[in-house]
Structure formats: structure tokens, C-alpha cells
Amino acid sequence: MGCNVGRPFIGRAFDDNWGLDDPTGKSDEELINVIKQIESKILELKQKELARGVCD
Questions:
Q1: Roughly how many angstroms between the first and final C-alpha of the chain, as a whole number?
Q2: Do the beta carbons of residue 53 and residue 34 sit within 8 Å?
Q3: Which candidate, 7, 32, 29, 31, places its Cα nearest to that of 18?
Q4: For 26-46, what is each residue's pLDDT tens digit?
Q5: How does DSSP classify residue 12?
Q6: DSSP tag of 7
């Protein structure tokens, strides 16, 4: 998922590794970049789930 943290249970197996850098101690610009990457990954995941008919 990213940043070397545990993943929450979302009702199904989830093994995507988003390969995000840990922004701890880095600049605000780098933190904002990671936030944007997370947002993009969430939207991609939502589209995959919508295509599977899992969420609405």
C-alpha cells in the first residue's frame, strides 16, 4: 500500500503495493506529492471496484 505501514481491512484481500516514499521529515512539497499519489491511487482503486460492481 505504501509508506511501510499496515493495511486496514476493507472486506477483501488487498495486496496492492503502491510503492510510496515515506514523507516523514521531508519538505512540504514532497509531502504534497505523496498526498497527490495517494489520491490518484484511491481513485484508480475506486474505478477498479466500480468496474467489478463492488462499490457505488
A1: 22
A2: no
A3: 7
A4: 999 999 999 999 999 999 988
A5: S
A6: P
Higher-confidence residue of 29 and 16: namely: 29
Pairwise pLDDT comparison (4 vs 37), residue with the higher score = 37
* Rounded Cα gap, residues 39 and 53, in angstroms: 21
C-alpha cell at 56: 457505488
Residue 56 in contact with residue 50, Cβ under 8 Å?
yes
Distance between CA atoms of residues 5 and 16, nearest Å: 13
Model confidence pTM above 0.70: no
Alpha-helix residue ranges (DSSP H) falling in the chain: 28-52
| Residues 35, 10, 7: CA angle, nearest 5 degrees | 55
